[in-house]
Design brief:
By secondary structure, the chain is of the alpha+beta class. The protein is built from 3 helices and 8 strands.
Length: 132
């Protein structure tokens, strides 16, 4: 499980939550020491094209995996692909949506998820079982 948030510095931060024993709500109310991660991944959604310090990333969300698969199929980028049921890939962190204080919305896709779908589509779109 991951925790994601935007920041006033114009970047997006992602932490991996290593403990799945208690929900975040239970941890917050239990008054016990919680697991902390000292490492986090960060990225600039503006890729240096603007002064990121002048924009605030107000929202950063993972797209649910139940929405990612249909998005790939409805994109019509893979016309021979009619299902992703045969693809063994965790799409749970494959796409991120960000929003900023100026109303801009950006969508980011993990390269490995796109590569997996491309391999699955192959020449006929259904005969290539993909294990990642």
């Amino acid at each position: 499980m991951y925790i994601i948030c935007g920041s006033e510095s114009g970047t997006v931060h992602i932490w991996e939550n290593s403990s799945n024993q208690m929900s975040l709500k239970a941890k917050a109310t239990a008054h016990k020491k919680v697991d902390r991660s000292n490492t986090c991944a960060s990225f600039d959604p503006y890729n240096g094209t603007t002064n990121a310090g002048q924009r605030v990333v107000t929202e950063a969300l993972f797209v649910p995996s139940s929405c990612v698969k249909p998005a790939f199929l409805m994109s019509q980028l893979f016309p021979s692909l009619d299902s992703l049921d045969h693809v063994k890939y965790d799409f749970g962190s494959a796409m991120i949506v960000t929003g900023d204080d100026e109303g801009n919305i950006k969508i980011f896709m993990k390269r490995s998820s796109l590569d997996t779908v491309i391999r699955a589509a192959g020449p006929d779109g259904r005969l290539h079982k993909v294990d990642v």
